Amino acid sequence: MVVSQDNKTNNDSSKGVRDRLLDAAEELFCERGFEGASIRDIAATAKCNIASVNYYFGGKEQLYQDVWRRHLIPMRDTRIISINKVMSESGGKPELEELLKAFANSFIGPMVDDNRERQFGILMAREWIDRRLPANMFFDDVIKPTMAAMHKALVKACPGLDESKIPLIVMSIAGQLVQAAHIKTIFEQVSNSGLPIFDLAEAIEHIVKFSAAGIRAYAEEKKDK
To answer: CA within 20 to 30 Å of 217's CA: 32, 99, 107, 160, which one?
Structure first.
């Protein structure tokens, strides 16, 4: 199919059309779900013709995956960059707490950006109810590369650590951070309830100290065997 010329002139450059389609698709996927967001409505919201969807994405399934990748890839890259920065600045011998703090801040940052967090949270909820992503996409695009970077860094930050425990360690830290972000949102929604203010920075400090103690306990446990 050929996209009409009006989509490739003035400010509607090739990149501009693609981005408008992604913006429109994310809005409608969040509002109506995958089945409820038709290609026709996505194209109309993006002010593009229907052929644009196939031209840039090959269909609605790939468009949906690319909407997700706009969130997942920056999140992954931010985490890996933060890990690599700590490794570089420490000469390859990072302090455990510094590594965990850098990872925690890079992990939780995108989740508490109000606009991004709200939209992505809705998208995640929709996906849990009606799974449309390839089963291996999240693992291949996010978990595997992030886990590899953290594995390498943790081995340096805590010599003697049983490497078989690292996947569970990273999953535990990630779970705590996700929960902290959700609790922050809940407290903000009921700000007049008399509940204490939820200090996210304090929660991150707790998670870092708590996790560092657990990691060192694992390392000591291995020494004692």
So the answer is: 107
Contacts of 2 (CB under 8 A, 6+ apart): 51, 55
Averaged pLDDT, groups of 10, the chain, 225 residues long: 39 71 95 95 95 96 96 93 96 96 89 67 86 92 95 94 94 92 74 71 94 93 66
Name the helix (H) or strand (E) containing 51: helix 51-57
Radius of gyration (Cα) for the chain, nearest Å? 21
User: Coil, strand or helix: which one is 134?
Assistant: coil
Query: In whole angstroms, how far apart are CA 169 and each of 77, 138, 158, 159?
Result: 20, 19, 12, 15
Residue 218 neighbours by CB under 8 Å, 6+ apart = 161, 162, 165, 169
Among left, alpha and beta (phi > 0; psi -120 to 50; other), residue 189 is alpha
Give the tokens for residue 84. 């690599």
As a 3-state breakdown, the chain gives helix, strand, coil percent values, each rounded to 5, of 80, 0, 20
SS3 assignment, position 37: coil
pLDDT tens, position by position, 6-46 = 443 334 444 599 999 999 999 999 999 999 999 999 999 99
